[in-house]
Amino acid sequence: MIDPAMATLILFNKPYGVLSQFTAKEERPTLAQYIRIPNVYPAGRLDHDSEGLLLLTDDGDLQHLISHPAHKQPKTYWVQVEGAPNSYALTKLRQGVELNDGMTQPAEVRLIPAPKLWERKPPIRERANIPTQWLEIVITEGRNRQVRRMTAAVGHPTLRLVRVKIGPWTLEGIEPGKYRTETVHAPKMGNTTNRRPSGSRPSGAKTGVPHKTPHPKATQERAHAGPRGKPAAPKSTAAKPAKTLVLQKPKPRIPPQS
Fold it and tell me: Which residues, in sequence order, are CB contacts of 87 under 8 Å at separation 6+?
């Protein structure tokens, strides 16, 4: 049984060079420099050298719905490639290309005019006498650096990649480094507690870990303990209550970057 509940969803326009996580071992920009809201975690990934829409949420079920490949959320990218793809290359991208981890699923691919975007810092590398072309690519998979590998496989390396849409959520109206917060209905499976999203936050950040309720047996034993310095009263011979098993849904696995 599905029990609709409200969840926080953040639509973030990730700048070039920012990691899609809140912590990093090396000195590199992370989400912590842009998003101060506690208890939210990315629903999916976006490479550090890619830009655009990254979704974050405080709800594990919503995170799972957005990021797990089983739900096949369409992800739309605007991709600037080197050279001018011909009809053969476009057909290969649409039908599927062979990568080192297998054939890609069919994708929606079309040529588009150069979109009106912010300037990237640093700018893309340009080579004299070699044109570039913008593509719109829609995929439902989430393999590591998939779009870049797809265009390279047909002879057109990606120069710039901007994700503009995930499912029904778009980047429209959000400047680089800024975000918009929405409250949405999130699916909650019956007979489970609210599932926290998976991910890591900087040390000291609020995690929202619930208070652990003591086991009924431990509570009962403390109730029978006598005052300090006096022996405890005899334990009751009444039948002990049966243990209750609480089934919890596993946390979702965050898919690799696209």
Answer: none
Domain that holds residue 142: 74-166
CATH of the domain at 172: 3.30.70.580
Residues 65 and 178 in one domain: yes
Q: CA-CA distance, 69 to 168, in Å (whole number)? A: 16
Pairing verdict, β 102-103 and 98-99? antiparallel
- The residues assigned a catalytic role are 47
Kindly state whether residue 105 falls inside one of the protein's structural domains. yes
Please give the average per-residue pLDDT across 25-33, as a whole number. Answer: 91
Rounded to the nearest 10 degrees, the angle between the axes of helix 146-153 and helix 87-95 is: 140
Lowest-confidence pick of 69-83, 175-189, 241-255: 241-255
Q: Is 150 exposed, middle or buried (0-12, 13-18, 19+ CB in 10 A)?
A: buried
pTM of the model: 0.74
Q: Which residues touch 188 (CB under 8 Å, ≥6 apart)? A: 2, 3, 4, 5, 61, 194
